Amino acid sequence: MATTATAVAPVPLRRPNLIAICLKEAKYEFLKCLRFPMYSVSTLVFPLMFYVLFGLVMGNQTIGNIRTTVYLIPAYGTFGVMGASLFGTAAGLASERGLGWLQVKRASPMPLVAYFLAKVVMSLIFSTIDVSALMLLGITFGGVHLPALTAAKLLGILVAGSIPFCAMGLGIGYLATPNSAPAVINLFYLPMSFCAGLWMPYQFLPHFVQRIALLLPPYHLSQLAFNVVGAGQGGPMAIHWQTLAGFTLICLGVAWVGHQRDQKANG
Amino acid sequence: MVAAETRTSRTLGAANEEPVARFASVNKNYGNVRALADFNFEVRAGELVALLGPNGAGKTTAIRLLLGLAKPNSGRLSVFGGDPASGETHVRVGAMMQVGRVPETLKVREHVDLFSSYYPNPLPISETLAIAGLQELKDRKFGALSDGQKQRVLFALAICGNPDLLFLDEPTVGLDVEARHLLWNEIRSLLRRGKTVVLTTHYLEEADALADRIAVINKGRIIAQGSPADIKSRTAGKKIRCLTELPLDVIRRMEGVMDVQADRGAVVIQAAKAEGVLRQLLQLDPEVSEIEVSSAGLDEAFLALTREDGARA
Questions:
Q1: Do A95 and B102 touch (CB under 8 A)?
Q2: What is the pTM of this model?
Q3: Are A20 and B117 in contact (CB < 8 Å)?
Q4: Beta bridge pairs of residue A67
Q5: Which residue in the set B90, B97, B141 is minimally distant from A109, CB to CB?
């Protein structure tokens, strides 16, 4: 009886699975960026190169009572995550918005959420590669001792820290044009990295820069990461998480406004 | 079973009566620019209809409205009887749009694989590649393709979901003759599969080669509609160039002459049909020489149609 009912029932239209689409979109977003040297090389090579030069080659120094080879993992980890996320979202979005590719996608049945999620997932993957490579370099060549739990915690915090910068990237991607996007990203990326103490330890920064640092998301992410290896400024960690969460919401708001503006201009 | 049959026949019946897509008194403005004005148009199942017009005539706007990418300021618009922007409509539609840059580091097969995944019943990837003539290029990165090959990839992305209705927005713009004819063959193969196609172009030749029906658009309005033969007889008159001593006024008064101009010592005559005018010319001026007859270009055709349009208004 039950078999007959199944046989007669109309065949339902096979609906594409949203998760499957998101995964495929993310896979190709990753391949797209991996094969684009301006992205893959600059986001992977620069943090690692800085680590080799200032951590491994200069070697055997300390910052506070932490060895530089340890100290620089959270510092360049934050730097790498920020670059991977900002460039991974903003550059692609600005160019695809401005040069018609997003319109081609929107003319297809692609769920819009898949488009954005793919860019975030791609940034998370590059962030994971970045941070893992830094830790591997430190452990292999820098004599860094990282217990598995500490390493996992550091990786987890830094990769989660990609999300605020993805949100910021989406905001920039909606406000910038295809040509201006890389410049705009660098205009935020490099000064923020310096002022947040990613290139020069926070305690060595001039006073007024230290005050600025407190307003910068990379400072808060780096403090969470430094704290894992005992190199932070101390104090409660909650404020850093809250700042990053608030910053994420503001950036998503900016992106949403940009999206509405686009809709209005095109629609 | 019975229920399924009834539904099928009803669907077929509906396909005969209901247009696949319809504009009813649609107005669309961009700022102060009127892109479409009181636009009325229907697309019928299984036909290839060409929207023909100069740049800025409103062709792309019409396609964007049908894709739900833009909303009309007033009037009604439906695709498969529903909202063009809805998900149910989108899975039955494929579109080839004009695009400035396509991600260049993905391979042809990867682009097709991704777009196929958006649709409930896509064609097998190998079939899409075969229809678009891309089998041998499937592992080539998009950035390494020629312009004609790039257009064919965009064509593949439009058809990969096996949609019932296809929009091709200026599919052959910028292509050389060979690439254009290749794409034409691919478009014709869609019609044999029972698809409905809406094509925009500013080449009369292209509309003539492909379309069952042509709608000529100018300044956001349809100014002429009909079979390619109809449109050509109304637009594509003949151009006669010759050396003659006859005054322009005399020629202008001849039967069938639409326009006369002096051009570098010669005379250029626009006429609906060449034969009658030539007969009169030879009669009045046996010395007429260097006669060249050519088809009026699209520019002249548009001029003729827009003049007609202006005279009616």
A1: no
A2: 0.83
A3: yes
A4: A62
A5: B90
